Amino acid sequence: MTSVDALASLGRARALVARSTTAERVADAVREEVVEGRLRPGERLPEQDVCTALAVSRNTVREALSQLVAERVLVREAHRGVFVARPDRDAVRDVYRARRLIEPAAVRYGEAWSRDGVAALRTAVQEGHAAAAAGDWNAVGSANQHFHRALVGLAGSPRLDQQMGLLLAEMRLVFHRMPDVREFFEPYLARNDAICALLEAGDRAAAADAVTDYLDAALAQLLDAYDALDR
Amino acid sequence: MTSVDALASLGRARALVARSTTAERVADAVREEVVEGRLRPGERLPEQDVCTALAVSRNTVREALSQLVAERVLVREAHRGVFVARPDRDAVRDVYRARRLIEPAAVRYGEAWSRDGVAALRTAVQEGHAAAAAGDWNAVGSANQHFHRALVGLAGSPRLDQQMGLLLAEMRLVFHRMPDVREFFEPYLARNDAICALLEAGDRAAAADAVTDYLDAALAQLLDAYDALDR
DNA sequence: TCTTGCAGGATTGTTGAACAATCCTTACGC
DNA sequence: GCGTAAGGATTGTTCAACAATCCTGCAAGA
Question: Are B137 and B161 members of one domain?
Answer without folding.
Answer: yes
